[in-house]
Sequence to fold (351 residues):
Amino acid sequence: MKQHFSEAKQYFAFQWHITDECDQRCKHCYIFSEDSCKKTDAMTWEQIQDTLYNCLDFCEMYHRRPYFYITGGDPILHPDFWKLLELLKSYDIPFTILGNPFHLNDEVCQKLKEYGCQKYQLSLDGMRETHDWFRKPGSFDITLEKVACIKKAGIRSVVMTTVSSKNIEEIPAIIDTVVAAKVDVFAFARYCPTSEEKDIGIEPMRYRELLVVCDKKFKEYEAAGCETYFNKKDHLWTLYEYETGEFKIPENAQEGMIYGGCNCGNCHLTILPTGDIYACRRVQNSRVANVFEDRIADVWVCEMEAYREYDKFKKCSKCELKAWCRGCPAVANGQTGDFYGADPQCWKEIE
Fold:
């Protein structure tokens, strides 16, 4: 008998890369960052089924409700993509697709909706010239065109931007663009270096200035009744709002409890097409096991514990916001190789 998961249970997020196949070779892609000609991996149908059952076993063990972020590559290019969605529907499991715009049309989007797709995430990494430089000529216009297609099917459209020194000046214009396109959700996160020489190239106070500008735009649009939800995804927003007084440490906060910040080791993990389980896809050295060989339920209480040692954070452990912020350990790890190192864009001075 197939299990259906209670709405009352807390969600656990699986970022599931079913294939590396992609129509693009983006300059900031984790898959092809060091080798644009690498052999692409993809799960077989048998491996997909085994992976799903391993995830469901984990959720049953820890009383969690599964939520899948199906991605790649571009997941729609996997030959068993639709079979997987049919399987998810049979368990009444909600999911989001993180993919490209190139294979979307009204028929495809409607089919996604029927299988239970809640959100479809696209990327905009600059205005037209910059975005097409990062990704693929023409992809800027195609991305905006497909937002309407996604929304027409009743799926929430999400646009994500990866911020680096290359596009930081264009973020305000991107915000105006997504609002004009009536995107449902917009968020940005910083580029995570894949080697020491690939620094994000943004000084801490310059990044704070970006948050000041974006916060002003967000509030102006919200006051005007804008339908776009601005997801303050980067945890340094917590530091910024603490300084502005918008976030206050709760009086009833318990010592030693973690209330927010990075979900790594908390309510999220990543599975690659090879079966490798990562604490975080953006942390290049965070492989903890393999889903074809190991039980996720066991990995969670053993190998994953290395990402929950909050007193190891070299800077954040001394900060009053440790339980709510901690910046982005992936960016710190990408620059220094140390997951618990200081976030290079954190501007707070710690004595």
Remarks:
- The beta strands are 10-17, 64-71, 95-98, 117-123, 156-163, 185-190, 229-230, 268-271, 276-278, 287-290.
